[in-house]
């Protein structure tokens, strides 16, 4: 049995064509069903529906053999393991180039970020991406107090919880709707294939077949 961990939404939708390229059709729709284990047209392949931030954990501990997760999630997960995905037992063979977005710093339109940085002010930064934010501001030499949030980061500067946020930006509509502006582009994000290192040894042929099909589907 090969088990693939996916999160609902954009990653799930954009993974379906890759699975198809590997001859795998998911037989149930996670948006319609409450089932967490989805069957496929291949009796020995199943899909787990998990929270995006839990994908690396399922793969690391062997609850799933493979998973697809954003680079952001992977960096944050790896930070608990000395910053290395391989130390977390994860093999990261392929950038799938799907669910692309960026991770940025944003502030209220009336906040003068450039001056605050120039004056060496201590910035309050709200984010779900603590490791990415810490590394970014440390490299820039900006002192920050990080405030960990789990969602709706855009609210924090609006109610005075923080001066800035570090968050994912795709279309930029969420920032615009909340009168925030992007002031730094930290990195581009896309989804990565991660594989449990032990599973790769034990189920070499089946897992390789999937990796190769995904690789040719994304032109690598
Ligand atoms: C992400 C991110 C922003 C939004 C950006 O949230 O946190 O809120 O998408 O997209 P946009 O630039 O196209 O408006 P998501 O919907 O993934 O949910 P989350 O808050 O649970 O991360």
How are the elements arranged and paired?
Layout: E1 2-6, H1 10-21, E2 37-39, E3 45-49, H2 55-60, E4 66-70, H3 71-79, E5 90-95, E6 101-108, H4 113-118, E7 123-127, H5 130-140, E8 144-148, H6 155-158, E9 164-169, H7 173-177, E10 180-189, E11 191-196, H8 197-202, H9 204-217
Parallel strand pairs: 1-3, 1-4, 7-8, 7-9
Antiparallel strand pairs: 2-3, 4-11, 5-11, 6-9, 6-10
Helix pairs in contact: 1-9
Bound molecules: 1-O-pyrophosphono-5-O-phosphono-alpha-D-ribofuranose.
1-O-pyrophosphono-5-O-phosphono-alpha-D-ribofuranose binds at residues 151, 167-174.
Report the average pLDDT across residues.
97
Major beta sheet, strand line-up: 2-3-1-4-11-5
Q: Largest sheet, if any?
A: 6 strands, mixed
Distance between the termini: 26 Å
What spatial form do the alpha-carbon principal axes imply? elongated
Kindly state the percentage of residues in helix. 25-40%
Total number of strands: 11
Secondary-structure element order, N to C: EHEEHEHEEHEHEHEHEEHH
Radius of gyration of CA atoms, rounded to a whole number:
19 Å
Which structural class do you get from the secondary structure elements?
A: alpha/beta
Proportion of beta-strand residues: 25-35%
Low-confidence stretches: none
Q: How many DSSP helices? A: 9
| Ligand list | 1-O-pyrophosphono-5-O-phosphono-alpha-D-ribofuranose
């Amino acid at each position: 049995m090969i088990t693939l961990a996916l999160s609902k939404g954009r990653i799930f939708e954009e993974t379906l064509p890759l699975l198809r390229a590997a001859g795998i059709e998911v037989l149930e729709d996670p948006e319609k069903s409450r089932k967490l284990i989805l069957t496929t047209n291949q009796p020995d392949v199943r899909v787990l529906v998990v929270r995006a931030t839990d994908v690396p954990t399922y793969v690391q501990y062997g609850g799933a053999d493979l998973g697809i997760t954003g680079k952001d999630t992977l960096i944050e997960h790896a930070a608990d393991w000395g910053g290395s995905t391989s130390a977390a037992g994860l093999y990261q063979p392929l950038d799938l180039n799907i669910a692309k977005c960026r991770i940025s710093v944003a502030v209220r339109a009336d906040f003068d970020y450039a001056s605050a940085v120039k004056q060496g002010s201590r910035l309050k930064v709200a984010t779900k991406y603590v490791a990415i934010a810490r590394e970014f501001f440390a490299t820039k030499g900006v002192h920050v107090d990080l405030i960990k949030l789990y969602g709706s980061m855009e609210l924090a500067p609006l109610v005075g919880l923080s001066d800035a946020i570090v968050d994912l930006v795709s279309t930029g509509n969420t920032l615009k709707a909340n009168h925030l502006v992007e002031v730094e582009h930290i990195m581009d994000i896309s989804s990565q294939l991660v594989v449990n290192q032990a599973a790769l040894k034990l189920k070499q042929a089946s897992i390789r077949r999937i990796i190769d099909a995904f690789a040719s589907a994304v032109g690598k």
